[in-house]
Specification:
- This protein has eleven helices and no strands.
- By secondary structure, it is mainly α.
- Helix 1 runs antiparallel to helix 6 and helix 1 runs antiparallel to helix 8.
- The longest helix is centred in the middle third of the chain and has 30 residues.
């Protein structure tokens, strides 16, 4: 596919990354809490039993994350994204056919193994490969897709649950994820500018006098720096509390007497602001 030469292909990849995060995170992850109450009422599960699925996904994803860094280096981010799109779509469809609690746990384990393959980590690697300058803006735009996707898909999924049931909502997400993400990744994603005979985007910006020097550290050297562990600790607590809020917000509002459609609308507004705060200029 040919694009105007005046448009740097990296900016097209930013838009593609917005689509990836919109479905990979905004749809597959942000809609989780909508299923808690209907699934528990259908099977008679305690909420703590079912929300353990989210814990399994998070812990498995955390343990698998270091492995993904090496996999991306060996096979490239495109193949990792393709595997993630296919497997997350199939797993989500699999949830709809679950008949026992352990089925949900098994699918959640597989979900956790592939969660990082189409999340902030993979998208961040892709953007970093294409941008030396304006990296903050490009990354912020790419990640804002998760909020936009959540804002759009949460009301849609909520309506499907209300009218057709939670099983069809899972199937809808899985089919949309596979049918949209796979072609987008195959056609548009390029591992690096070099694959197209280009260089990373690097506008001529005068270096500020007080700008901190770039630290090129190896993996082992980075493990010994306080900055890394401070960042890891901060991200742990951010995700810890964000995951808890995401999982229980919909059932809590539903318990207060609000309809599924109304709850989805409230969560959608939250995701709009979530998208805005991710922008960095």
């Amino acid at each position: 596919m040919v694009f105007p030469k005046k448009i740097f292909y990296g900016w097209i990849l930013v838009f593609i990354s917005m689509v990836l995060s919109a479905l990979g995170l905004g749809m597959f992850i942000s809609t989780n809490s909508l299923f808690v109450k209907p699934v528990c009422e259908y099977f008679g599960f305690a909420r703590g039993q079912f929300t353990l699925c989210r814990t399994i996904i998070t812990l498995t994803g955390a343990l698998a994350m270091p492995i993904y860094g090496r996999i991306i280096q060996k096979v490239g981010v495109k193949k990792v994204l393709m595997a993630g799109a296919l497997m997350l779509g199939l797993v989500t469809i699999g949830y709809s056919f679950s008949a026992s609690l352990w089925h949900f746990y098994l699918f959640s384990l597989v979900n956790g193994l592939f969660y990082n393959s189409i999340s902030f980590m993979s998208i961040g690697v892709l953007i970093s490969a294409w941008f030396d300058g304006k990296k903050g803006l490009a990354t912020g735009l790419a990640f804002s897709g998760s909020g936009i996707g959540g804002a759009v898909m949460i009301p849609v999924i909520g309506k499907i649950i209300e009218t057709a049931g939670w099983q069809w909502a899972y199937r809808f997400m899985g089919l949309v994820g596979i049918s949209v993400l796979m072609p987008v990744i195959i056609i548009f994603v390029k591992n690096s500018p070099q694959d197209m005979g280009l260089r990373p985007f690097a506008p001529d910006v005068p270096k500020e006098k007080n700008q901190a020097p770039v630290e090129n550290l190896s993996y082992r050297e980075a493990l010994g720096t306080p900055k890394l562990w401070l960042l890891v600790t901060a991200l742990f607590f951010i995700n810890f509390f964000a995951a808890a809020t995401n999982t229980h917000s919909a059932p809590y509002l539903s318990d207060l007497g609000y309809t599924t459609t109304y709850v989805a609308s409230v969560m959608s507004v939250f995701m709009v602001f979530y998208a805005i705060v991710r922008l960095r200029f």
